[in-house]
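Q: Predict the assembly, please.
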Amino acid sequence: MTDWSGYIGLILQGALVTMELTVMGSALAVVMAFVAGLGRVSRSMAIRALATTYIEFFRGTSIFVQLFWVYFVLPFAGVTLSPLQAGVLALGLNVGAYGAEVVRGAVKAIGREQREACIALNLTRAQAMRHIILPQALPLMLPTFGNNAIELLKGTAVVSLISLTDMTFQAQVVRAQTGSTLIPFATILVLYFLMALAISHGMRWLERRVTRGLDGMRT
Amino acid sequence: MEWDWNFVWEIMPTLIEGLKITLLATVFGAALAAVIGLAFAILRMTAPRPIAKTTSFVVEFIRGTPLLVQLYFIFYVLPDIGIRLPALLAGVIGLGLHYGTYAAEVYRAGIENVPRGQWEAAKATNLTTRQTWIHVVLPQAIPPMIPALANYLIAMFKETPLLSAITVLELMNQAKSVANSSYRYIEPMTLVGVFFLIMSLISVVFLRFLEDRFSPLEQR
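A: Predicted assembly structure:
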């Protein structure tokens, strides 16, 4: 009879790594999404081109290919990253590219009259963006950001293939040691699902929080 | 290490071999996803409440968990209960199931977007349920779905490298084995990236065309 408590502990350790990756990857993704998303609506042609290249490049290949590239090819260019760093970098840049399109879409969706009012009030472009456009665009972005965060969570499973000890990796370890397949894989499937539920509930809470005070302003 | 063009040409045939498997998995995965998605969508909309609820939960569950783990589940757990699948078939089933849940949402949205008046008119003209679906609802529901479905097709194509984790010899796996036997990582890994980038850039152009072609008249 196998003693499962130790193996469950192993999987829970992996769960911590998965959460760590999700949180750090999301942080990087949000930063990249705003940088590239606002870059897409910039007045400067060069910045627009740069942002478009970044977005198309990272949306054009999968997270898996990018991760392997970062982990195996960058060392030859003199950049050696730990698996965790490579994972956060690849996940953040990949999901950030998807997020950038969301930011752009939401900013574009804010009506012309808001921009015209900003010009009439003599606000600079930065002020208009910071005080008028973004506060209204943010609630539009959040639901899609929630989906993107869940995509990122699911993407973290891939890092197990570059020997980072996340939940999927630990499940493989348990499988190798016990020969049991159902228990480790069923356990991590449930854990991933619970994490995804937590993210979608968290985003819904955040949505209520940022729309407070905006009632009646949008139709 | 320097980029070596000779080595690139040397490994090209192997990579092309892998690309064939990648495309094969994409095509069959997409076909399966289209069918499974339709089944999920119909179950959710027309089945009795408990079945519809269960289907919704299954769909949510599949969407909330990583494809990689689902592939492991299909490939490693099913043999324990006597279902032994070849790696490629397991991969196709995994892709089909995962993207089927996404396709189900597209179908549902497409069917719900057909105005109620169309259903009522079909009833008023005494069409059977079958005739209503085939001649009235689906012809109006399907064209707007096409761009969204194509979008998921591209997404699925990009996810096929995951099949290498369950030993399918597709593009990524061929590149990895070439890299491991020659100790050169730059060329194979970069080429895989370039292959995918080219394919998806082409498909983005194709997608734009589909969007123009099938968008509702008033938006054109």
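Chain B has a mean pLDDT of 88. The radius of gyration of chain B is 21 Å.
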